[in-house]
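TA notes. Do not distribute before section.
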Amino acid sequence: MSSKLIRGTFILTLGTFISKFLGLFYVIPFYAIVGEEATSLYQYGYVPYTIFISLATAGIPLAVSKFIAKYNALEEYEVGRRLFRSGLVIMLLTGFLAFLAMYTFAPVFAQMVISDDEQIYTVAEVAYVIRAVSFALIIVPFMSIMRGFFQGHQSMGPSAVSQVIEQIARIVFLLGGSFLVLYVWGGTVVEAIGVATFAAFVGAVFGLLTLFWYFKKRKKHLDELLVQDKGQVQVSLGGIYSEIVVYAIPFIFVGIAIPLYQLVDMITFNRAMASIGLAGISDTLFGIVNFSAQKIVIIPVSLATAFAMTIVPLVTSSFVSREEGAVKRQLNQTFQVLLFLTVPAVVGIMLLAEPIYTVFYEHSIDGTEILRAYAPVAILFALFSVTAAILQGINEQRFTVFSLLFGILLKLSLNIPLIKLFQAEGAIYATAIGYGASIIINLLVIRHYAQYSLRSVAGKIGQIFLYNIIMSIVVLAAYFMLLPLLSTDSKMQSVALIVICAILGAAVYFALSIRSGLADIVFGSRLDRLKNKLKRAKG
């Protein structure tokens, strides 16, 4: 792989990571501004938007970049430019149609959510928020094509920088706008959430302006490539687009997996809660499940998946080359890295759920219980993402669509009965069952087509869980010793409690892993390089 491509991939990965990091941690000041109940209203608008935007754009930048890179390698630069020009028109049209659909049917979506007069928000208020966020659909698909165009020219900087600027602009407008509405202009919470969701449009404008700036700056060089065009290939854009759609479908489904599960909750959660006489607290608990707790749970998923995903391209290469031994070794390492990082993070969140929820939001018994129940689902989120990526790598991505739809069907079937039995936690159990079923299907497909079974790493997985049990005992002992000294009602004291317990738990876990050799097996040469650097630093 060329150094230019490695550098470009690193830049794009870094930009994506920074953007996700900002998207995870803005919730702390946002929650402080709007309060607990308003987060449900925010989710009522954002869940359908996420699904619409994923359907309109997921996989498009990658698919477009693939085709532009292909024809650039053949020195048929005009083909890529034609694809880009036509793609801009199509994405502008589909984006505008998606906006019209979401804006027009906002009251219908709102009626699916509001099922009882005792709920905090009305149909009109939910429809207002959905309409506020729908404007972003006009711009984002158009922007995705531009990102794909730059990536096709192995120029990752514009995509990375535009992602970060888009996220910063969105968060600044979201926090600043909601604060001004509530505390300066004396507006309502509904108006503040409307401004917060409209921030998606503002962020998209800034992201698009960044891409325009890059395009203007590099247009001279791009036009010089057209002069070198061979002009020997005649390509049907219709054929390319049909291939792009097929290529993008698995990415679309993986991208909307979590939003689809949240959509099921949107449609069924309030109705189920109302049926057991809990309509008055339904909106608040929905916000905790699908916003507050979910944001915390996603943090270890993002970090662990980022590490594990770096191995997946190697799996693809080895599978194509028919190197079965290499495929098995790389899959072993993928799952070991994923579980080695995710499981202790999940255990930590479960053990320290009360102070963690206090630090992010406020002290809440409901929030603590829901977060503790939700934390293990992080392992399932991570496993689904990685198994879906592996299916893509071995060219069996069609099964990703089947496994996800089967999981969603289970969630839809079980959500109301489980909510009636376990209240808010029932929605989490239904999500866990759905994701678990999808993962089992993915693993069975991987076993069949790649001749791989998790049995080959069962011993190492057992070690990971054993060391987490030992770590849990140590952390729990420390936690209960510190509780008389540090109150979980206080944010600062909760931070101290988390830091002390986390450092102690990490020390025990990594000491056991390094002493037993598990860390060497999981990380291989990466750990050796780290050890050598530490030795040189000491010397």
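Switch to the second chain here.
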Amino acid sequence: MPQHTPEITETGQCMECNGADSLVATLVNSGVEVCFANPGTSEMHFVSALDRIPGMRAVLCLFEGVATGAADGYARMTGKPACTLLHLGPGFANGMANLHNARKGQSPVVNIVGDHATYHERYDAPLTSNVVGFAEAISHWVRRPRSARSVALDAAEAVRAARVAPGQVATLILPADTAWLPAERPAPGLEAPGPAPVYQDAIEGAAKALTNGKKTAILLRGAVLYGDGLNAAGCVAAKTGATLFCDTFTPRMRSGAGAPVVERLPYRGKDVLARLDEFEQLLLVGAESPVSFFAYPGQESWLTPPHCAILTLAHASEDGNSALIRLAEAVDAAPDCPMVELAPPSLPADGPLTAEAAMRIVAALLPENAIVTDEGITSTLPYANMLAQAAPHDYLALTGGSIGGILPLSTGAAVAAPDRKVVCLEGDGSAMYTVQSLWTQARENLDVVTVLYANRSYAVLNQELKLVRAASKGDKALALLDLHNPSLDWVRIAEGLGVEAVRAETTQGFADALRAALSAKGPRLIEAVL
């Protein structure tokens, strides 16, 4: 196939395009500025177009799950989609786990998936698969153009679909011949519908409930946890005596000094039921009623107590921020109300490093305006409340429960916010799913400090073994939950991927290592041996 060089105008439009040129130009026209890529043969014309069409940053990821997880992190911090570039059905399948997390996190993501040329499908070549079926299993919107001339409009519609509130996964499957054949001009960006307004009846109903004397919990999720409505929610709580909650694993939350007090629901279902038992009303803002993460024998899955009435102020697709501001006015809440004051925990005394001591040190040393990403599970969940009075920061959690999401998420967040320090709290078992993220962080010189909790175990699964009443002391069962023999050497792993790393086994050693990492620029890893 001869090299095709289109004419590029001053505005970045291509005059004589092939399908790949029109696709890249349309993505740029639609506001997509970053592509997290793991390309193959079918995507080579897209790769080539990146050199000809200005405005798109290309970030190479060595595994598709890194690309999709990074797109999730980028979307959470910018509110707009990046695109991924994936290779046929197997490449898309490799990225599905973190697309699941993105879907549960309501992140806008646009996947570009190369496929065999339309005329090549009938030969059932080795990489032929039901890529449309794979995509439909996890995407809100899927399209596979049959003509190079329709690629541009399809791309514009993919971005619009991803931007539909509160955020969707859109997948455009691009047959190779639609990439290399001639196409018409790129398409302009299409306007996506924003969040729907909340009816006045819902505002009045919530205000009435909050002033009826019943004890009320307000469960927040989505943009209200970092937008203008968060302060309004704090003022509503201060005025009415309501208690603010968020999900255990929330996509993004403004936390620390200057934010209102928002309590995270416990992880275990029985603990959620116990915590909510004192409330007579549960007001939902962008959230769903809480349910247990898993089913357990003899335990409830539905976690709202029977005596607690459920009301909805705003659905996820509605403008919860504006609704909370209007609700604050309706209950006559003061515009300025008390917020969390800066009071980080003191540093622990020296001694063997524990998970609690590590979190205490992170909270004490956290720089202002950092981004904290958390998949530490058993090492962090019990102690995450220590961050509540730390320096102001954004907190991002693993939303869909598919482990291996946080290293890529941190990568995408760092691309999205290069002027902010990312502090990644990660477990050793989870990190092995997407360890390739460290290489991308090194290549792009991303400002990420990874605290790698090395407890040499899938510790949460040891708990689950008992909770599902499958407890065993047999060697075979316990060996499947253990990471010894051999133990992972995270210093050597990180350094082999281009990231500076140190090991800490004491509280003083960890504090010294974290200070040094926070004062430097670029990726660092601390293996916190527990």
